[in-house]
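Hey L., structure's done. Input below.
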Amino acid sequence: MRSRTVPLRPAARHALAGVKTVQRHRANLLRELGLRDRPELTRYAVRAGLIEP
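Output:
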């Protein structure tokens, strides 16, 4: 499965946050959900109905 990715800087601007803040939030999500990497996080979000593939 291949999903559309959003580069980190535009995502941070959209969220009105800094790049480091977005990186930290992502790292916290990975840890709390017991996931290993961004692709696994993306698959989780698709399965949970949070994003569309």
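Residues 8 and 23 are 8 Å apart (CA to CA). Residues 19-33 form the longest helix (15 residues).

-- N.
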